[in-house]
Write a structure and sequence with these properties.
Blueprint (H helix, E strand, L loop, with lengths): L1 H17 L19 E4 L2 E4 L12 E4 L6 E4 L17 E4 L2 E4 L1 H4 L5 E3 L6 E3 L2 E3 L2 E3 L11 E4 L2 E4 L10 E4 L2 E4 L16 E5 L5 E5 L1 H4 L6 E3 L2 E3 L9 H6 L18 H23 L3
Antiparallel strand pairs: 1-2, 3-4, 5-6, 7-8, 9-10, 11-12, 13-14, 15-16, 17-18
């Protein structure tokens, strides 16, 4: 009886050994779904591509033919070969999937490898020597924010400083009279412009902003038309101007006084001669 029990146990051991699963959990007589192209028999994995195609394991394909055939990782969705870096940094193709690997594949322009060595982070902005971390407002330029490594106008997030006014997402400089930079002042011909030092100043620009009533543009300035009299101009320049005295108008009889007197004398002489002839006839 003991001998019979021993032989039964031995037979079961042989049967179990021949049907034991492989180390990756693959059942006896089955293809591995962990390691492509392998077949499990007698508790061991053996290459058997004809029975176990590579594509049974997702992300793997067959390379080569016949005895030279092997299983390799498939390309990723963007066409990147297995183990290679994608053009879309910092992605790398691993087992048919694109994963971040900034240490191996680098980062896009304007970004750097993050401390974790896997992802990328934006390089801080530089506002004329002032470092502005990503996502923060510049302490130097009014209304500026560092976004994706670039300083951009973002007055909705970064309030405008004194001396400027918000216009959309920008902060516009103001001149002392409240005129916005790039605009004409109500005091013609002044225009508000940004100087080389970055401040807003008022300058003459008659060609753009026009002139007050009664004045005309001469270059960028406004000048009044000359109102000096033609006569006496040099006296005015010399400071010796005199007001000309108008001539007295002649009486209506002044032009006839001499001829009338002469005619009167002739008439008087004629009358006197006639009287002499009458008083002394001969």
């Amino acid at each position: 009886m003991r001998k019979l029990s021993f032989f039964v146990l031995l037979l079961l051991g042989v049967i179990f050994a021949g049907t034991a699963p492989c180390v990756d959990g693959t059942k006896h007589g089955s293809c591995s779904k962990v390691t492509p192209g392998l077949y499990c028999i007698d508790g061991k994995l053996h290459p058997y591509l004809q029975l176990c195609p590579c594509n049974l394991v997702p992300g793997w394909v067959q390379q080569g033919q016949g005895d030279d055939a092997t299983c390799v990782q498939a390309k990723c969705a963007d066409g990147t070969e297995a183990g290679k870096c994608s053009l879309n940094k910092p992605k790398q193709c691993v087992a048919g999937q694109l994963v971040d690997n900034s240490s191996a594949c680098g980062c896009p322009q304007g970004m750097k490898v993050a401390p974790n060595g896997i992802t990328c982070e934006f390089i801080p902005c530089n506002d004329s020597g002032v470092i502005v971390p990503e996502g923060t407002c510049s302490p130097k330029s009014s209304g500026k924010k560092c976004v994706s490594g670039q300083l951009v106008d973002k007055a909705s997030d970064c309030p405008c400083k004194s001396g400027t006014v918000r216009k959309g997402e920008s902060c516009i400089l103001l001149c002392v009279d409240g005129t916005e930079a790039g605009s004409c002042s109500t005091s013609k011909p002044k225009e508000c412009v940004i100087s080389e030092t970055g401040s807003a100043v008022l300058v003459d620009n008659a060609q753009k902003c026009g002139c007050p009533a009664g004045m005309s543009a001469e270059g960028n300035r406004c000048v009044a038309p000359s109102q000096l009299p033609i006569a006496g101009t040099m006296d005015l320049i010399a400071g010796n101007a005199t007001v000309p005295t108008p001539e007295k108008s002649a009486s209506p009889f002044s032009c006839f006084c001499c001829p009338a007197a002469f005619i009167g004398l002739l008439l008087l002489g004629f009358v006197f001669s006639k009287k002499q002839l009458t008083d002394n006839p001969t």
